[in-house]
Amino acid sequence: MSRSTNNPTGPKSYFVKSFGCQMNVYDGERMAELLDDEGLAAVDNAEAADLVILNTCHIREKAAEKVYSDIGRLRRDDGSTPMIAVAGCVAQAEGAEIPRRAREVDIVVGPQAYHNLPELVAKAARGEDALDTDMPAASKFGKLPQRAKQAPSAFLTVQEGCDKFCTYCVVPYTRGAEVSRPWGAVLDEANALADAGAKEITLLGQNVNAWQAEDEKGREQGLDGLIHALDRIEGLERIRYTTSHPNDMTQGLIDAHGEVGKLMPYLHLPVQSGSDAILKAMNRSHSVESYLAVIERVREARPDIAISGDFIVGFPGESEADFEATLEIVRATRYAQAFSFKYSARPGTPAADMEDVFVAPEIADERLQRLQALLNEHQIAFNQETVGKRTRLLLERDGRKPGQRIGKSPWLQSVHLETDAPIGAIIDVDIVSAGPNSLAGTLPERAAA
Ligand code: 5AD
Ligand code: SF4
């Protein structure tokens, strides 16, 4: 079975640890599939692996610094280290600097080059330098194996990179320019995922709603066209997409939320700040008003939609009044879920040069706490509104208690309940209680018909 015979001294087992966003999770799964194909065995912890891949995130300073402490922790009691590969965005950003700073690193591979992983592993096994951070014009996707057995909920990267150049963000540098995968390739992968057991597909992209391609008839299609095509895949029950930019929310995509039953009522639409002055300094190229107008149109199309967002506090130049405006947009939107971060200066980005107006860390801390308290309040309120309702749940995994399973509601809430229905089933559930991060449900009483 094994094709690793061409590499007899190489690693026999591997462990992939992915940090950061869902696109990294997807890349981690694809790297695992490549190594499976090479005959390596997956193990579930770094201690047991001959090859450890750290699939890294560069978005904030803490995430990037973490890599070096993680590398240090891979050293074993006898002083040995496994073969170590640093993949992902830190690999892209720091390249050859990584093995200079951490000599135990054997392989450095960027997010656009990981289809070359088997070759890099073979090189490293021969003691050669193994670094690949190229961003080739030809897509890596065509060189990856067919999708294998799937959990009920699968990721599918359809778009990578970003041309928006928000002034705080490293993504345009680490992931490159916006590229959409072709229509046929995406549909083939979606069909393969559904055949392999996926009931839900989340389309991924740094700017997923900027996705565009020609369909088989040569017509230009946007994400809404793709969603309509996915709607026709038998066995696929749920469609989601993330992350979107407000300026790429076309009317067609908004309408799809009202037209496609499989498209789940959830939209992650980052705004970052509620102050027009800060949005301008961030180069977001939308205003508070235009963002709120998009939200309003989405809610018209799908009144029960859950809105989620990302926020940055303490961006250079942010005054107390700017921050108050962020609280205001939160109150106006009432997010069902949100992610909020303290601004982190990233080398090479324009905002990192705005040192003269940096916000003091203790002020940023205090703002983050106030923002998170408000977001939490809304998240709990949203969850509590679902108590007493009957909804559909996609069962994803076993719970901690025997007989318990955990599933996802249409609004991306985790719900636990007791049932013997199998993982992958979509069942009715009555929500009986709700906390900030999870809900409890029961099976509906079987009413006599
Ligand atoms: N500092 C803090 N947060 C950031 N994000 C992106 N870059 C930075 C940064 N330099 C946040 C944004 C983005 C999310 C993925 O991470 O909110 O939407
Ligand atoms: Fe970064 Fe802005 Fe692009 Fe999002 S839209 S990836 S925040 S540059």
From TrEMBL:
The record's subcellular locations are: Cytoplasm
Source domain of life is Bacteria
**Protein EC:** 2.8.4.3
Q: Which residues form the MTTase N-terminal domain?
A: 12-126
Task: Give the principal location in a single coarse category.
Answer: cytoplasm
- The entry marks the following residues as binding [4Fe-4S] cluster 2, namely C162, C166, C169
CDD domains documented for this protein? Radical_SAM (cd01335)
Cofactors needed by this protein, per the record, are: [4Fe-4S] cluster
What is the recorded function of this protein according to its Swiss-Prot or TrEMBL entry?
Answer: Catalyzes the methylthiolation of N6-(dimethylallyl)adenosine (i(6)A), leading to the formation of 2-methylthio-N6-(dimethylallyl)adenosine (ms(2)i(6)A) at position 37 in tRNAs that read codons beginning with uridine.
Q: Subunit composition?
A: Monomer.
Task: Write the protein's name.
Answer: tRNA-2-methylthio-N(6)-dimethylallyladenosine synthase
Gene name of the encoded protein? miaB
